[in-house]
Amino acid sequence: MKELSLNILDVAMNSVAAGATLVQILIDESQTGKMILRIVDNGCGMDEQTLHHVTDPFYTTRKTRKVGLGLPFLRMTAEQTGGTFSVSSTTKQQDPANAGTTVCATYDTTHIDFTPLGDLASTMETLIGGHAQIDFLLEHRLPHCVIKLDTREVREILGKEIPLDSYEVLAWIKAYLREQYEQQQIGGTQTVSYTHLRAHETRRHL
């Protein structure tokens, strides 16, 4: 994959398939060129056998479908920059209250083989548009700002009558994130807020 955002989408879809109700995509970039990516879910988790083989694209516990390439590719993108990769998981049988999986990858963003992050706005639009019943959190910490989208906060503003996967809401989400990234690139400050979404949707439904 030419962009990490596509790899992130693939791994997040694993979380959806695991029955997660909350998927967190957490990115922390430092001024020194180190980046930490974590994808955290509260799904059903993986047992020890599955966890041991999770980066083997040919391993499967079913006869009908092989495990996807999301985790093996993510591991490759991290390690080719001299970074690290790890997966930890707890099943519902082990701890029902704290079940879930955490995928962590570290990168040297100055390395020649670093894969660009790509279009995270489109990744979030795709995840939310296809799985509006699930909550997603994107939190991207940069040296001078934090870019964030939390569907739980968006739901609170919209109310139950406006679905997250409506065309207008998805278009706003994509524009909201892209404006934050554009402002960050030019060294500006965030000018779009959730309040604008409330006003826009209120006018649309009057």
Report on the structure:
The chain is of the alpha+beta class and 206 residues long. 38% of the residues lie in helices and 21% in strands. It contains 7 helices and 6 strands, in the order αββααββαββααα. A 6-stranded mixed beta sheet has the order 3-4-2-1-5-6. α1 (4-17) runs antiparallel to α3 (70-79), α1 packs parallel to α4 (120-130) and α4 packs antiparallel against α6. The longest helix is centred in the C-terminal third of the chain and has 19 residues, at 167-185.
Number of E strands: 6
Strand content: 15-25%
Unreliable stretches covering 5 or more consecutive residues: 63-67
Number of helices: 7
Read across the widest sheet, the strand sequence of neighbours is 3-4-2-1-5-6
- Radius of gyration over alpha carbons? 18 Å
Largest sheet: 6 strands, mixed
Mean pLDDT comes to 87
- Quick one: overall form? globular
Helix share, percent: 25-40%
Spatial separation of the terminal alpha carbons: 44 Å
Broad structural category? alpha+beta
The helix-strand sequence is HEEHHEEHEEHHH
What topology does this entry show?
Elements: H1 4-17, E1 22-29, E2 34-41, H2 48-52, H3 70-79, E3 85-90, E4 100-108, H4 120-130, E5 135-141, E6 146-150, H5 151-158, H6 167-185, H7 194-205
Parallel strand pairs: 1-5
Antiparallel strand pairs: 1-2, 2-4, 3-4, 5-6
Helix pairs in contact: 1-3, 1-4, 4-6, 5-7
